[in-house]
Amino acid sequence: MDAASSAAQPGVLPAGRAAFLPVRSIAVMSPMLPAGRFARLGQRDQTATSDRPRPRAFRNARGRHHPHRVRHRPDTGEAARMDADESERTDARRRWHGGFMHGPEDDEDGLRRLIGDARTVRQVFEAAPAAVVGLEGPDHTIVAANAAWRGLLRRDAFIGRTVRDLLPGVVGQQLIGALDRPFATGVPELITEWRVQLDQGADTAPEDIYIDCVIVPRRSPDGAVTGLVAIIQDVTGRVRDRQAAQRRAAEAEQRHAEARDVIDVLQRQLLPPGLPILPGLAVGGSYLLAGAETAGGDWFDAVPLPDGRAALVIGDVVGHGVAASAAMGQLRAVMHDHLDHVGDIAEALTAVDRLAGRLPGARAATVCVAVVDPADGRISYCTAGHPPPLLIPSDGRARYLPSSGGGPLGTGSAFPLLHDRLGVGDQLLLYSDGIIERPGLDLPASTVELAETATEIAAGRALREDWLATVERLTTQTLELLVRVTGHTDDITLLAAQRTAPPPPLLLDLRAEPAAIPTARKALDDWLYDLGARAEDVVLLRHGVGELVTNAVEHAYGPARGGILLHARSTSRGAVEIEVSDRGRWLEHRHETDRGRGLAMASDFVDELRVDTGPSGTTASVRHRLFRPTRLLTTGDLTP
Predict the structure, then answer these.
(1) What are the pLDDT digits (tens) for 322-351?
(2) CA-CA distances (angstroms) from residue 514 to 110, 462, 598?
(3) Which regions are flagged for Basic and acidic residues bias (predicted)?
(4) Whole domain around residue 360: which residue ranges?
(5) Per-residue pLDDT reduced to its tens digit, 364-396
(6) What is the pLDDT of residues 443-454, one digit of tens each?
(7) CATH code of 414's domain
């Protein structure tokens, strides 16, 4: 074996060559002997080489000829089996043996017997009903893909491209992480019913699909992970069918139920019905219950303050159930009342601290209060035993604000304040500890994951849901993207605020004629929807203000047509104020018995209605509070 060893490392033959060794040496040769070559074994330890093809060599051999299997142990120390052919020939001068040895991976006949003809294997791979894709390297370069994969993506040119380059839209949807984990750990990854949005072109809206996926590492002969195989099943139909069945079941239950579920009623009554719509500050919130049959102890609130600022509150009462919900409701009511009337964080916290000290179930509750001034973005906040807020800039990565150092309620702690600033477009996220204390994650990892996920969502790199306000996307997609991976065992509450440019007022100068009525209604609808008003509030104000405009058209001037002014603005207390004024004198229509009902109808549609009449005209003023709906969710509600 000395000639072979001199050409390469011990036990390894030079590429493309065959060694001539005694028959007994076959058992120690390396599996790297190339296919299609043969070894002629001379007397004793004589060694030579040849490149003659094996078939011809064995055609020239006479005497015994038989294949057999031998064991070898290469330098890695791992025992394996190899195929060996041996031929014996006797001529006039001497007797010699010819041998050829090769590994199973180099034996086309052996591979064909083991896994089938290469062409057939490709056909089977191509026809597999599941999408199968082979990936290479840490960047997940696509090296193989079948027809089902091409059909799923609806494109062909992707071999040699990375997943990140081919599908940039999925970077913020945690799919890259699902590939990185098995590549780094060597442990297969299982994905079940993940919602994924695939971009189908610049002129086409992204498509929502649901997938099941198994991601398995591919290894080199030495055991190192070199790539991945992903087997993907499109289960959109199954998920949609289940969702439709769930909707039908829910509708049937709603139709036939005699009363609403007690826990749901209790939770909804104790939490705010909505969050105020404020000029210069968009607010949104979501509440995910720990279980569908258990009342929770988290709460949140947004309170417009008398000086034009807004207070954001999030709290967590220890435990679950009706007692925790009852304690939560009392703490929230006291906090809201003090903030609404005084607007001072320290005074409000002192009041709820006193209550927590004597209220069963409220001691050691935590709360975070942040007051934001939409005019200049100043933030004052206190973390009374609660995790600190997360600030998400419009053009950078999220960062956690420092904890203020205050302790839980009812423990005799002080409540110091800290300060920061929110730029236009920046978002502030308050959250309960349920989002960072999910199963299977340590606290440092989960806090980093929350910040990274919030950054991706705020930048628009996660799921595209353009019909939602930015704060609504942040509070709903954060729940979906994080909880679907780990699940959750505690209530999770998210409250977000984004500083925005104040909305311009609406000012219309109309001629008092019938065409002014639909014009005013259309302009008011558009303005209210731009504010983020709910459809039901838009309808109420459309009819209420429409009645006022109709009265001005029909009563203010008579045959001589004058002008009508409509002015609408959003106030810092979370309401809209709308005035409809004219410069005429209202005339009585004695012969029309249904006149006079318009003002009564308008009063029923809105929170407040006032009519001021004077020598210079009539002004009807409407005041109506606007709310953005909050979402009370269970795990089954996370997937739209």
Answers:
(1) 777 888 889 999 999 999 998 899 999 999
(2) 90, 48, 15
(3) 73-91
(4) 271-499
(5) 899 999 999 999 999 999 999 999 999 999 999
(6) 999 999 999 999
(7) 3.60.40.10
